[in-house]
Amino acid sequence: MCLFALRGDTNPDVHSHFGLIPPSTPLIRKRFFRAQRDNGAYVTTEMERILLTQGDIRRAMTRISHEILEQNCASSELVLVGLQTRGVHMAKRLADNIERIEGFRPVVGTLDPRLWRDDPKVASGQPLLPSDIPNGVDGKPVVIVDDVIYTGRTIRAAMEALLDFGRASRIQLAILVDRGHRELPIRPDFIGKNIPTARGERVQVRITEIDGDDAVVLGRES
């Protein structure tokens, strides 16, 4: 069994000559899996398309940091609440950016909103992760931070969960990827990238703190 990757940013003449990938196609990763059937082994393929690279994510996060400061008048009372798990690391990155830009570091909290979801099966699948917002949110502007928004149900649950920490003066939402298909009237205030998707597709945000690298990958639901 062989493993290899095809990159859309390599020599376009080679791609065109062999009919592999059009030169305009973004980075593509092809993975091969070996599976077993009653009549022997066969190989299936899964195509993954890289939508955002490490540089794309860095630039998007820098832009979002500036937008948060502009919308909140550089308030030193600002609280960033990252949703477990990738949203927490994204909130910390935003806080680092804001500290470099403005000279103060916002409070960073963590929140696992699954208990407040309207589909309890999601909460029962895995152990709950820590939720902690130092000094609460009473009278403070809060930005909820997450990697992907889909139906909006996780964000609705997060807003309800925030009530346990006080009454914020304002709640905003920062998202790296908006993939559409909303089921609730929720719209992010700060968006890294709008990426239209089909319901059978899967958007995976990879971050260095968890996955070892930064990328946003589009694949198929298994």
Structure report:
With about 220 residues, this protein is α/β, with parallel strands linked by helices. The chain has 2 domains: about 10-50, no CATH class; about 55-195, Rossmann fold. It is built from 6 helices and 9 strands. It has helices at about 10-20, 55-70, 85-100, 120-125, 155-160, 210, and strands at about 30-35, 40-50, 80-85, 105-110, 140-150, 170-180, 190-195, 200-205, 215-220. The strands form 2 sheets. It has a 5-stranded parallel sheet with strand order 4-3-5-6-7. A 4-stranded antiparallel sheet has the order 1-2-9-8. The chain starts with 11 loop residues before the first helix and ends with a strand.
How would you briefly describe this protein structure?
The chain is an alpha/beta fold. The protein contains 6 helices and 9 strands, in the order αββαβαβαβαβββαβ. The protein is 27% helix and 31% strand.
